[in-house]
């Protein structure tokens, strides 16, 4: 059990590190995601070919998974675009608003009852983002792109719910990364009209950080999360991933020294977001405790 918790938090830490890599890799955000998906999906396919137990899935389900991958790809393009137009800390704050969009969209899509507590906590995050938006006009474009990315990111786990009931998480991830790559192959020529790329082939340092992003922060993080799921519940994994933006922002402070360039508005907004994350984690833990142990479905992580 202890080993599983260590594996889980290494995976969350690696996920938090992706924001810093978005700053270190100088490629256009569209190309950055394209290379990430190319390397990650190829690696997962190679691993998959050597697996003994391969579950066959229908062509229709494959197309659905590929479509979800396209949404995920645009989410990542927006996330890294937010980093390019602002910084890692601001982009990760916007990333944390996924909770607000999920609380609103999930009941709408599945026709279920609205969870007003979740909506309130998500709205608290939006207020936090407003403080940053209001006090520092330099980051407005990055914040708008980051919010659009968070909206797409909120659709990702919602749409995955039905898929993960029938297909293993590893297979879903493999097809989704492949779908995102194929989708970007189609749209990048048009995307470059909006956001031109200064160069197309990664430099030596870009290649190094791309491999770190693709292998460590994607493939290794996914495998660590799935190994952790063998010992601990999906609930615990999902709860721990709430810490991803917190880890990422702290890493940006330590590695990139972004705290020197942030004003009081950021810290007020970040404090509100921390309150929201803490309250949501406590609330979920309390609900879990009240209803007792229950089998849960594995999430897609990484």
What share of residues are in beta strands?
Answer: under 5%
Tally of individual domains: 1
In one word, what is the shape? Answer: globular
The number of distinct helices, counting runs of at least 4 residues, comes to 12
The helix/strand series, from N terminus to C terminus, equals: HHHHHHHHHHHH
Which stretches are poorly predicted, pLDDT < 50 over at least 5 residues?
Answer: 293-302
Percent in helix:
over 70%
Give the helix/strand class: mainly alpha
How many strand segments?
A: 0
Q: Tell me the distance between the termini.
A: 21 Å
Average the pLDDT over all residues and give the rounded result.
86
Regarding quaternary structure, what we see is single chain
What radius of gyration results from the CA coordinates? Answer: 19 Å
* Largest sheet properties: none
Task: Describe the structure in your own words.
There is one protein chain. This protein has 302 residues and is mainly α. The chain has one domain. The chain contains twelve helices and no strands. The protein is globular. The two termini are 21 Å apart. The C terminus is likely disordered.
Overview features:
302 residues; mainly alpha; 12 helices; disordered C terminus
Concise synopsis of the structure shown:
This protein has 302 residues and is mainly α. The chain is 78% helix and 0% strand.
Topology:
Elements: H1 2-24, H2 29-49, H3 59-85, H4 88-95, H5 98-110, H6 116-135, H7 140-164, H8 169-194, H9 204-229, H10 234-240, H11 244-256, H12 264-291
Helix pairs in contact: 1-4, 1-9, 1-11, 2-3, 2-8, 2-9, 3-4, 3-7, 3-8, 4-7, 4-11, 5-6, 5-7, 6-12
């Amino acid at each position: 059990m202890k080993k599983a918790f260590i594996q889980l938090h290494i995976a969350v830490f690696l996920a938090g590190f992706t924001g810093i890599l978005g700053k270190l890799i100088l490629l256009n955000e569209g190309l950055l995601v394209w290379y990430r998906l190319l390397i990650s999906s190829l690696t997962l396919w190679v691993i998959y070919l050597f697996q003994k137990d391969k579950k066959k899935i229908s062509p229709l389900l494959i197309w659905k998974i590929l479509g979800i991958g396209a949404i995920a790809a645009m989410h990542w393009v927006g996330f890294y675009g937010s980093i390019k137009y602002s910084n890692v800390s601001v982009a990760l704050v916007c990333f944390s608003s996924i909770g607000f969009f999920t609380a609103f969209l999930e009941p709408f899509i599945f026709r279920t009852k609205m969870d007003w507590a979740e909506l309130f906590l998500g709205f608290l995050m939006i207020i936090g983002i407003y403080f940053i938006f209001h006090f520092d006009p330099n980051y407005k474009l990055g914040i708008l792109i980051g919010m659009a990315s968070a909206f797409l990111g909120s659709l990702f786990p919602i749409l995955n719910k039905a898929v993960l009931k029938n297909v293993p998480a590893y297979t879903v991830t493999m097809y989704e990364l492949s779908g995102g790559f194929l989708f970007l192959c189609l749209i990048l020529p048009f995307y470059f009209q909006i956001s031109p790329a200064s160069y197309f082939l990664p430099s030596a340092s870009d290649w190094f950080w791309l491999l770190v992003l693709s292998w460590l922060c994607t493939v290794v993080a996914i495998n660590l999360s799935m190994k952790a799921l063998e010992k601990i519940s999906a609930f615990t994994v999902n709860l721990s991933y709430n810490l991803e933006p917190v880890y990422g922002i702290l890493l940006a402070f330590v590695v990139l020294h972004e705290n020197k360039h942030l004003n009081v508005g950021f810290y007020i907004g970040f404090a509100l977001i921390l309150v929201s994350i803490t309250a949501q984690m406590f609330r979920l833990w309390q609900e879990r405790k009240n209803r007792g142990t229950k089998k849960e479905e594995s999430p897609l992580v990484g």
